[in-house]
Amino acid sequence: MNNSAKICPSCKKPFIRNHTPESYLDENCFDCSFWLKKITMPEEDEKRRVIVAGQHYMMGANTFGPMGFGGIRFAIHFNDGRTVETCNLWCQGEIPERFRAWLPDNARFIPIKKEKMKMCDFFDVEDWMIIGPLSEDLADDEKNRKQNEEDFNQEDDTVV
Ligand SMILES: [Zn+2]
Q: What is the tens place of the pLDDT at every residue in 75-120?
């Protein structure tokens, strides 16, 4: 681990590389790397990306394992006309202002039929065709980001 502070070429802020090497894109800080990777996401993942009101979400495959939002069902209408239901939606947080131009809203949440308002039961979902990273990857993404936010807040506390 390299503990000397570097300057992020994207946001120009000093940072310390204290996450795993894969967390970083080139010389960027964790936060910028996180969002730059979302901007340069592989095309096949694009259809699983959900951006509503500046919040970034990803639909995971419906597999056994951890489920985003504890398996709560969401109905999503995309600007391209698709309507998808998923029980495995993961939130990556609010897109920072500086990246919004590259990550504009692409969908909205729509009400789901009342009889379907329940936790996921795996075999009753309509996005089986969605292939993508397993929930574990998205869960790690969320965990790393929360950890980074905590680290950042702690650093703030010590500075003040
Ligand atoms: Zn940065």
A: 999 999 998 888 889 999 999 999 999 999 999 999 887 655 555 5
Residues 6+ apart with CB under 8 A from 14: 5, 6, 7, 8
Ligand 1 centroid, distance to 106 Cα (angstroms): 25
* Full residue range of the structural domain in which residue 25 is found: 1-40
**pLDDT tens column, 45-78:** 888 999 999 999 999 876 667 888 888 889 999 9
Q: How far is the CA of 15 from the centre of ligand 1 (A)?
A: 8
- My answer on whether 35 and 111 are in the same domain is no
Residue 142 in tokens:
């969320």
- Total number of domains in the chain: 2
Residues with CB under 5 A from ligand 1 (ion): 8, 10-11, 29, 32
> For residues 79 and 91, what is the distance between their CA atoms, to the nearest angstrom?
19
